[in-house]
Design goal:
The complex is a heterodimer of chains A (279) and B (333).
Chain A lengths: L1 H4 L2 H29 L3 H6 L13 H9 L2 H32 L5 H13 L6 H10 L6 H25 L3 H9 L4 H12 L1 H17 L2 H6 L8 H5 L10 H31 L5
Chain B lengths: L3 E10 L2 E11 L4 E5 L6 H9 L6 E6 L2 E2 L10 E4 L11 H11 L4 H14 L15 H13 L5 E5 L7 H18 L2 E6 L2 H7 L2 E6 L2 E6 L1 H6 L4 H6 L6 E4 L10 E4 L4 E4 L5 E10 L3 E7 L5 E7 L9 E6 L5 E3 L5 E2 L1
Parallel strand pairs in B: 3-8, 3-9, 6-7, 7-8
Antiparallel strand pairs in B: 1-2, 1-4, 4-5, 9-10, 11-12, 12-18, 13-17, 14-15, 14-17, 15-16, 18-19
Helix pairs in contact in B: 2-3, 2-4, 3-4
The chains are: A mainly alpha (279), B alpha+beta (333).
């Protein structure tokens, strides 16, 4: 493949572009991580240099673990992210199955309605959402966040999954029906395993915005016991003084779980993105 | 055990009528094949019989009982699909036994039936493999096995050989014929391949545009087609159709003659033409004659023949095997 059509010059150019992009994309992350391990003075003196014997310091991590209840924040973030993710995948896949499998009046209209959320940001409805949460006594609970994030994630999930479900062979589903499988078993046992790559894609696209969100935790659940990591890190950013060591340490720690989840899904993800292109 | 009756079946998808009133009786133990060009509604009809699709009108009866409101799993049918449709996460054994497990048959009976089907289809070496580890032909045998273990009143085949290569298609065809002889069950089979239809069927149902054109044994359809469509659809190469006026005849609109009922002659015959193409098939030779206004006429000659392209030949029709069609396309007897 690379021998006939690509000259070395092309190869070098392509790699140069890709490497440049990688550097740009990784730069902020690397700056956060290396500075998290430096003393406050060193951060300001030479923000781009690696920590050495002189500047190395774990003061940021110590502050984080001492001051805020970061373990709790982590726990909140994880619970909210994983439960929302589970609900988005479950309901998204079920809606997608119904849209792609059953002929009923208003099918197309329903599909468009469910996809509307991709175009309209959920944050536009913040005031109404807050009023609803106050009325239903859900302010300062993780449930509030989970409900909002599930709603936020569903449109894209339904949109992507229904496209993939259409590709699942009708014959297979019909064979199941003739063998007497219920629609639920056909869905869970025959169809879901076949769209696993698409599920992984949706999982990653859903998970990252939820984990990183600052807006809804700030508005719906700012109480100490329901704070998420991103909100918790704000403790160290003051109006006049910012504890950079602590902020950077907290952010470095916050990268870890999402990185782990990404690694779990990534093998499937690549298949999800390339499937259809290469059979 | 295993008769089928279709009474005035219709099916519409929105405003499109796919099946426009089909009546059919299938006797117990018969092998009936639906043939027709793509889009003629033959697969839809099969799916209506299976219960995977609801008919817009009319009724389906299996063994004399109307099954319109019966779900597919309770109709006593088994179906074999074009794409095999094996469950990818189950082994061959589990694929075959799933339907019986769902119907709560005792384990001993399931094992016995799976063993019978395995023996019948020589699937012993593959029982513990998954479908992904099997070749296309093996997968289709497993799919047939999955149908056999259910001991259905009706076997439904939806173009089961279309995804197989030519050699396997012949083998699997023989296998299905043997299966029908051994089991003696009623089988309904959909195909667009007329060779399959001619070789397997007790009776063939020719469908076109949602209607039945003719029902009959393979030889009835070949020797006695009811209209232009059936005459053209059965037989390969296709029957030649020539405007009667081109032959100086007034007793019909169109004259049909099969390529195998034409002989060629260098000097005299019914129609003169220029050799435009020759196909050498070994056992026979197909000669295509360009007969000007009368169109292209194909003659199928037994054995090997050599003619120069562009040379002039006369085609002589076997007078006893001419078909006459009126201006509605119906045969004149």
């Amino acid at each position: 493949m690379s021998t006939a059509r690509h000259s070395p010059a092309h190869s070098i150019a392509a790699h140069a572009i890709l490497i440049a992009y990688t550097v740009i994309a990784l730069f902020p992350v690397v700056v956060i991580v290396i500075n998290a391990f430096k003393s406050r003075k060193a951060i300001f003196r030479a923000p781009l240099s690696l920590p050495d014997a002189d500047s190395f310091s774990l003061i940021g991590f110590e502050t984080v673990l001492k001051q805020g209840d970061f373990l709790l924040y982590f726990q909140n973030s994880l619970i909210v992210t994983i439960v929302s993710l589970f609900l988005v995948l479950l309901f998204g896949a079920m809606a997608a199955f119904a849209l792609s499998e059953y002929r009923f009046r208003g099918n197309t209209l329903m599909g468009l309605y469910l996809a509307l959320g991709i175009m309209i940001p959920i944050r536009l409805g913040t005031v109404a959402i807050l009023q609803m949460m106050v009325a239903s006594n859900l302010v300062n609970t993780r449930t509030a966040l989970i409900l909002v994030y599930t709603a936020q994630g569903l449109p894209l999930a339904v949109f992507i999954l229904s496209e993939f479900m259409r590709q699942v062979s009708d014959d297979l589903k019909n064979a199941g029906r003739i063998d007497g499988l219920s629609e639920y078993r056909i869905f869970f046992r025959l169809v879901l395993p076949l769209v696993r790559p698409a599920m992984a894609t949706v999982a990653v696209f859903t998970m990252i915005p939820i984990w990183n969100d600052l807006w809804f935790p700030l508005i719906l659940a700012p109480a100490e016991e329901t704070k998420t990591v991103t909100l918790g890190a704000q403790v160290f950013i003051g109006q006049f003084v910012t504890n950079w060591n602590a902020v950077l340490a907290a952010l470095s720690l916050a990268i870890l779980p999402v990185l782990i989840l990404y690694l779990i899904f990534s093998r499937q993800l690549i298949r999800g993105i390339t499937s259809g292109a290469v059979k | 055990m295993g008769s089928l009756a279709l009474n005035n079946i219709t099916k519409s998808f929105g405003k499109v009528d796919v099946i426009k009133g089909v009546d059919l009786e299938v006797k117990d133990g018969e092998f009936v094949i639906f043939v027709g060009p793509s889009g003629c509604g033959k697969s839809t009809l099969l799916r209506i019989i299976a219960g995977l699709e609801d008919a817009t009108g009319g009724s389906v009866e299996i063994d004399g009982a109307a099954v319109n409101a019966t779900p597919p799993s309770k109709r006593g049918i088994a179906m074999v699909f074009q794409t095999y449709a094996l469950y990818p996460h189950l082994t061959v054994r589990d694929n075959m036994s799933l339907g019986l497990k769902q119907a709560k048959h005792p384990a001993a009976q399931i094992a016995e039936r799976v063993e019978m089907a395995t023996r019948m289809l020589s699937l012993e070496p593959y029982l513990d493999r998954r479908p992904a580890e099997l070749s296309g032909g093996q997968r289709q045998r497993v799919a047939i096995g999955r149908a056999v273990v259910r001991k259905p009143k009706l076997f439904l085949f939806d173009e089961p050989l279309s995804n197989l290569d030519a050699a396997l298609r012949v083998n699997t065809r023989l296998e299905i014929a043997r299966l029908h002889r051994e089991l003696g069950s009623t089988m309904i089979y959909v195909t667009h391949d007329q060779t399959e239809a001619m070789t397997l069927a007790d009776r063939i149902v020719v469908l076109n545009a949602g209607r039945i054109e003719q029902v009959g044994t393979p030889m009835e359809l070949y020797n006695d087609p009811a209209n232009l469509f059936v005459a053209g659809f059965i037989g390969s190469p296709q029957m030649n159709f020539i405007e009667a006026s081109q032959l100086g005849r007034q007793d019909a609109k169109t004259i049909g003659v099969r390529p195998e009922h034409i002989s060629v002659d260098g000097t005299e015959g019914d129609i003169k033409g220029r050799v435009s193409h020759i196909e050498h098939l070994g056992a026979d030779t197909n000669v295509y004659l360009d007969c000007g206004e009368a169109g292209l006429v194909c003659a199928r000659l037994f054995g090997e023949h050599r003619f120069g392209i562009d040379s002039t030949l006369h085609a002589r029709f076997d007078a006893r095997r001419l078909y006459r069609f009126d201006d509605q396309g119906k045969v004149i007897r």
